[in-house]
Amino acid sequence: MACLREEREKLEHLLIGPWGVLSEHSKGRPQPEEPCPIRTCFQRDVDRITHAKSFRRLKHKTQVFLQPEGDHYRTRLTHTLEVTRLARTVARALQLNEDLAEAIALGHDLGHTPFGHAGERALRDMMNGGFHHYEQSLRVVDRIEKDGRGLNLCYETRMGILNHTYGAPDDTREATVVRLCDRIAYINHDLDDAIRAGILTAEDVPADIRAAVGDRTSVRLNAMLSDLIAGSADGNIRMSDGMAEVFDAFHNFMYDAVYHNPTAKREESKVKGILGGIFEYYMSHPEKLPTEYADIAHADGLDRAVCDYVAGMTDGYAMETYSDIFIPAAWSVK
Predict the structure, then answer these.
(1) DSSP E strand boundaries for 8-116
(2) Which of 1, 58, 218, 222 could in theory staple to 76 by disulfide, Cβ–Cβ 3.0 to 4.6 A?
(3) With a threshold of 0.90, does the pTM exceed it?
């Protein structure tokens, strides 16, 4: 039987242009492995992330709105899936490696805390060395998953995950695509959720932004992605100057109208108390940590292990844990 992976690697020479990463040219994994006979190395990364526990937990982690009442608000998982689809679309159009773009996109937010960026800010205040979700995402795939063994992902996937927020000079084009698609995705779907929540109306979006990119999510996404693809034809991944200006105005509007909106964020003041209480409890009672985090405490320090445990919690599990620790149970006669 022919090696299907080798056939796919040959096909990549036809499908991937001069600026994309060929799977056979990957810099490899932290721990060398025998290649899979069926999947390329980046396809294998996609599968490892998709089957990871941290990936499944994203469905119960906040995107923007804490505990929204309704079935159609985005979670961290649906955000991840939307970024992934946008990134694959752009990567295909630019003849980049779609599988690498998909792997980076699927893994980019694995280190996000419960309660979204409010949780990230809370943990940043608790950790002496600070806390950033993009660094934690790399830590999840390198150190925490699979009971401390990690997922052993390819270098290109790992660096794309680490640098998805700010980028790095040696980013692959696929990583840059994910970084831009992440920003395109969240300002559009967060606006959609804000309108659904009644925080904004479509007419609240400044008229010049609506005139430039449209007044519906699908129209805006099409305008932005089309511009990104057209502007990146020479291998430098970027929007046109005009679209970049519109995007920045849109981004600033979202920060003023949604991300700092007191109605949307009124519950976030409680997050620091919840996560801070849990954090201090486990710092004082390390024997209560699950076994895999006790092992991390022994190797990397107790505060690091507690941070890893708290960061990995879902919103609901964090509230349940806080309740179990600090709220007395109802008394009854047995």
Answers:
(1) none
(2) 58
(3) yes
The answer to whether 104 and 175 are in contact (CB under 8 A) is: yes
CA separation for the pair 313, 46 (Å, rounded): 22
- What is the distance between the alpha carbons of residues 90 and 229, in angstroms, rounded to a whole number? 6
Q: What is the DSSP letter of 270?
A: G
Q: DSSP assignment of 124-154, as one string?
A: HHH-TT---HHHHHHHIIIIITTTTT-----
Residues 182-227: tens digit of each pLDDT: 999 999 999 999 999 999 999 999 999 999 999 999 999 999 999 9
Q: Where are the domains of the chain?
A: 41-266, 269-324
Report the C-alpha gap between 38 and 31 in whole angstroms: 20
CATH T-level fold of 41-266: Hypothetical protein af1432 (1.10.3210)
| CA gap 245, 212 in Å, rounded | 10
24 vs 9: CA distance, rounded Å: 7
Tokens encoding 102: 């998909």
Interatomic CA distance for residues 253 and 250, integer angstroms? 5
SS3 of 92, please? helix
Distance CA 77, CA 110 (A): 9
Residue pair 102/175 in contact (Cβ under 8 Å)? The answer is no
Residues 151 and 331: their CA atoms lie apart, in Å, by: 45
Biggest alpha carbon–alpha carbon distance for the chain: 75
Tokens of 255: 């920060």
Per-residue pLDDT reduced to its tens digit, 91-102: 999 999 999 999
Which of 216, 311, 207 is closest to 249 using CA atoms? 207
Alpha carbons 102 and 83: distance in angstroms, whole number: 9
